[in-house]
Design goal:
Keywords: Ribonucleoprotein, Ribosomal protein
Largest sheet: 2 strands, antiparallel
GO molecular function: structural constituent of ribosome
Shape: elongated
Helix content: under 10%
Oligomer: single chain
Family: Belongs to the bacterial ribosomal protein bL28 family.
Organism: Koribacter versatilis (strain Ellin345)
Number of domains: 1
Structural class: mainly beta
Protein name: Large ribosomal subunit protein bL28
Strand order of the largest sheet: 1-2
Length: 62
């Protein structure tokens, strides 16, 4: 399942782990997603929403 917010479309960001010896390996920072039941067009729908959208009040919980 994709790590993408259903409200804003925010996805994972990519970068590098850098050790003390400066060994570089790839890594990714995933979005903090939460399963939520929300009202969309008057109907209840299960969505995976990032915590930024939850805190900003972009959706109405069912």
């Amino acid at each position: 399942m994709a790590q993408v917010c259903d409200m804003c479309g925010k996805g994972p960001q990519f970068g590098n782990n850098i050790s003390h010896a400066h060994n570089v390996t790839k890594r990714r920072w995933n979005v903090n997603l939460r399963p939520v039941r929300a009202k969309v067009n008057g109907a209840t729908k299960r969505m995976r929403v990032c915590t930024t959208c939850l805190r900003s009040g972009k959706l109405v919980k069912a």
